[in-house]
């Protein structure tokens, strides 16, 4: 048996304990959306909570789905060169964050790689043969955030011609944040949201314990279990241990393969955690760790050789004796 390490938030919100009901039940809600499943654990949710969550997720799919041909994103991808497109608030928020992280990561994360995603068989066209160098080069010419012109003041974006957005590396994290914000708006002071493995938690459980989440450690990786207290925090993981090397490096147009199995990022919001986990996986164990340290990201890198924790995540580890799994 191995000891479980505990990662605690940098700060605890005293208001979370002000009206804590130790006898309250935790409602479990769930469904399907965004090509995956969603789950909510909430204390005293409104009766219509499940319907509200489903409605919120449907709205996001209608805007940002790479798979729905009628989505705003798909319409942008088909739009003629030189056309400007007004973006609703959610879409604009995700695009702005995606472009910011693209710049900060040197292009290791990029919201404009839809052509490359489709070329490698990970998009709506379905499985494709392994592309040759000419096909990859052609897709690269119409890819990349540098080709986009975004006007944040007017919340509009220019289609320069042939650029295809793919927000799958960030939209799911935003959806987690959006659902959490929706529930808090409707009076849920304590809850946990999970969509396809990305999570955010706020408040505490009725027992006073935080919302505990165990980071997955794939078989064959030498690393002790790590449990995170999601109290005002979110976590996202990107990895190739299920489907093999499939995370595309936007800079080369080819799947990244640096020997990393998975990268998890703990962040104040799930959207940033989602995008940064993808970027760090692309960058690899050395370059990724340097960037994560520079950006003060709390990240866990897993490879077949072991584990690396960034200083920000190591600082979160509890010094008290851990529980035994």
From TrEMBL:
<keyword id="KW-0285">Flavoprotein</keyword>
<dbReference type="Pfam" id="PF02424">
    <property type="entry name" value="ApbE"/>
</dbReference>
<protein>
    <recommendedName>
        <fullName>FAD:protein FMN transferase</fullName>
        <ecNumber>2.7.1.180</ecNumber>
    </recommendedName>
</protein>
<keyword id="KW-0479">Metal-binding</keyword>
<comment type="similarity">
    <text>Belongs to the ApbE family.</text>
</comment>
<keyword id="KW-0460">Magnesium</keyword>
<keyword id="KW-0274">FAD</keyword>
<dbReference type="GO" id="GO:0016740">
    <property type="term" value="F:transferase activity"/>
</dbReference>
<dbReference type="InterPro" id="IPR024932">
    <property type="entry name" value="ApbE"/>
</dbReference>
<keyword id="KW-0808">Transferase</keyword>
<dbReference type="InterPro" id="IPR003374">
    <property type="entry name" value="ApbE-like_sf"/>
</dbReference>
């Amino acid at each position: 048996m191995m000891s479980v390490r505990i990662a605690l938030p940098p700060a605890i919100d005293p208001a979370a304990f002000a009206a804590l009901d130790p006898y309250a039940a935790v409602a479990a809600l769930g469904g399907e959306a965004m090509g995956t499943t969603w789950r909510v654990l909430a204390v005293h949710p409104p009766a219509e909570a499940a319907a509200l969550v489903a409605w919120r997720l449907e709205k996001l799919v209608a805007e940002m789905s790479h798979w729905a041909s009628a989505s705003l994103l798909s319409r942008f991808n088909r739009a003629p060169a030189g056309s400007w497109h007004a973006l609703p608030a959610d879409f604009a928020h995700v695009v702005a964050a995606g472009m910011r992280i693209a710049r900060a990561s040197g292009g290791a994360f990029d919201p404009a790689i839809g052509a490359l995603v489709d070329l490698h068989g990970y998009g709506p066209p379905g499985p494709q043969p392994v592309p040759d160098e000419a096909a990859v080069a052609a897709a690269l010419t119409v890819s990349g955030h540098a080709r986009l012109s975004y006007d944040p003041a007017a919340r509009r974006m220019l289609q320069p011609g042939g650029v295809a957005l793919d927000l799958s590396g960030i939209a799911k994290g935003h959806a987690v944040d959006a659902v959490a914000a929706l529930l808090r708006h409707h009076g849920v002071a304590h809850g946990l949201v999970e969509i396809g493995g990305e999570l955010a938690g706020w408040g505490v459980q009725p027992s006073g314990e935080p919302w505990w989440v165990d980071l997955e450690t794939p078989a064959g990786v030498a690393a002790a279990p790590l449990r995170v207290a999601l109290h005002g925090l979110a976590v996202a993981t990107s990895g190739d241990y299920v489907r093999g090397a499939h995370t595309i490096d936007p800079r080369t147009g080819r799947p990244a393969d640096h020997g990393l199995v998975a990268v998890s990022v703990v962040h104040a919001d799930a959207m940033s955690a989602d995008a940064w986990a993808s970027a760090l996986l692309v960058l690899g164990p050395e370059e990724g760790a340097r960037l994560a340290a520079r950006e003060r990201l709390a990240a866990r890198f897993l490879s077949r050789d072991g584990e690396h924790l960034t200083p920000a995540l190591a600082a979160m580890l509890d010094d008290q004796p851990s529980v035994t799994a």
